[in-house]
Structures are given as C-alpha cells and as structure tokens.
Amino acid sequence: MNVVKKFQKKKEDFSCSNCGFLVKGDGFTNHCSQCFFSKHVDIFPGDRLENCGGKMEVTDIVSSKRGKYIIEHKCLKCGEISKDKFRDGLDNFENFLELVKKINKKKGLN
Ligand SMILES: [Zn+2]
Ligand SMILES: [Zn+2]
C-alpha cells in the first residue's frame, strides 16, 4: 500500500466539450488533442479545484525557447487565462498547425 500519496493526480479521460472527442487525460492537461479547446477545471494544473467548468478557447499559441509550443486558453465563461503545453505524440499536429494559421490570421499576421 502506498501511504505517501499526498498529491493525487487525476488521470481521467474526458470528452471534449467542443468537438466531443474522447481525450486521454494525462493528469495535467485539459485540452482536447484534436481541436485544442480546454475546460476550466483547474486552479493549478491538475488540481481540478476550479468550479467554473467553462469552455476554454485557444486565444494564442507561442513557441518557447526550448522549441515547445505553449497554448494559451481563455475561459469563455469567466475570462480566466491559462497556459498549457502542446503534447508531442498525443496532440494532433496537423490540426495544431491549422489552428496556428487561424490564430495568425486573426492577428493579421498570415
Ligand atoms: Zn475537441
Ligand atoms: Zn472559467
């Protein structure tokens, strides 16, 4: 028996509130691996302590210095902004590139 479980990550799968895709949860992220929408359920990543439950839309994607992509979400219900990492091997990269294009267009960058 493991008695040192102070912090328990919840690794539940969930279906995306935007496109309905069944997302494999990894305990930290809430974003959909297909459309990248997220759900406002965390105060800190993985804690599931937030009661809002609003749909979170991707507002921006930035690349970090280490070549990782950071996805910025904004809650459509309460306006909270959170950041999430693109997950290599789990997230749909083609869809991701499409999303980047869309966002750049919105920003007028092309
Ligand atoms: Zn989705
Ligand atoms: Zn919210």
What does this protein structure show overall?
- The longest helix has 14 residues, at 93-106.
- The strands form 2 sheets. A 4-stranded antiparallel sheet has the order 3-4-5-6, with no helix packed on it. A two-stranded antiparallel sheet has the order 1-2.
- The chain has one domain (14-103).
- The protein has 1 helix and 6 strands.
- The N and C termini lie far apart (55 Å).
- It is α+β, with helices and mostly antiparallel strands and 110 residues long.
- Strand 4 and strand 5 (69-75) form a beta hairpin.
- The chain has one helix at 93-106, and strands spanning 14-15, 22-23, 38-39, 55-63, 69-75, 81-85.
- One zinc ion binds at residues 40, 52, 54, 75, 77-78, 80.
- One zinc ion binds at residues 16, 18-19, 21, 32, 34-35, 37.
What is this structure, in a nutshell?
The chain has 110 residues and is α+β, with helices and mostly antiparallel strands. 13% of the residues lie in helices and 25% in strands.
